Amino acid sequence: MIMKKVILLAACAFLSVSGLKAQKLVEGSLAFLKNEKQINLVFDYTDMKVDGDPGKEYVDDQVKDKNKDKSGSGDEWKKKWETTYRTDFFQERFIKDFNKETKGSIEAGYFQDAKYQATVKTIDMDPGFYGGVVQKVAWVTLEVTLTEKGSSAVLAKIQIKKAAGSQYDMGSMPVFELRIASAYGEAGENLAEFIVKQLKKVK
């Protein structure tokens, strides 16, 4: 009976984020991207939240708990959280899955010479967790603001709400950064799918 309850909790944890993904154009139009081949990406984690709470509180708690278990490990984790976890896992997976979805019709990446820029701001995330039978995929909510190079004028703004990591990545769920990277990959794929769909409507 206990094992059945545990399995049920695991299923509910997954279902609580699956099916909630949503992409919405909240401002402007994407028509200006019709003949573009590249978009420059900038990632912004300023004032991000973690499951609705201030990100700073989450980081401080993680550092404290990890340092308690092993001196210095929390400080090392914080460095990775602010650098390599983002660049080598979250952003890399976002870009990879975006470009895989567009199949070359339009490419996103670090293209500083591109005419248009997309600022991908993390609004909220849930890192999920792995506890053997009980596990929960990560999700991220992003706001993507498109501008022309050298201009702050907003041409379009897209919201990606609670993009959840893929269940096909469940094998990597014990690894913290891979679990969150899966959610960023889903967000990148969702954004690409949305842009391609919108551009098909442009004559």
In words, what does this structure look like?
The structure is a single chain. This protein has helices at residues 2-15, 55-69, 73-82, 84-102, 176-200; strands at residues 22-28, 38-44, 49-50, 53-54, 107-109, 116-126, 129-131, 134-136, 139-148, 154-164. The protein is an alpha/beta fold and 203 residues long. The longest helix has 25 residues, at 176-200. It is elongated, with a radius of gyration of 18 Å. Residues 1-20 have low confidence and may be disordered.
Summarize the structure in short.
With 203 residues, this protein is an alpha/beta fold. Helices cover 41% and strands 29% of the residues. The strands form 2 sheets. Strands 1, 2, 3, 4, 5, 6, 9 and 10 form an 8-stranded mixed beta sheet that branches. A two-stranded antiparallel sheet has the order 7-8.
Please state the structural category.
alpha/beta
- Note the overall shape: elongated
Helix-strand sequence:
HEEEEHHHEEEEEEH
Tell me the span between the first and last alpha carbons.
59 Å
Features:
alpha/beta; 203 residues; two-stranded antiparallel ribbon; single chain; 8-stranded mixed sheet; disordered N terminus
Task: Set out the fold topology.
Blueprint: H1 2-15, E1 22-28, E2 38-44, E3 49-50, E4 53-54, H2 55-69, H3 73-82, H4 84-102, E5 107-109, E6 116-126, E7 129-131, E8 134-136, E9 139-148, E10 154-164, H5 176-200
Parallel strand pairs: 2-5, 2-6, 3-6
Antiparallel strand pairs: 1-10, 3-4, 6-9, 7-8, 9-10
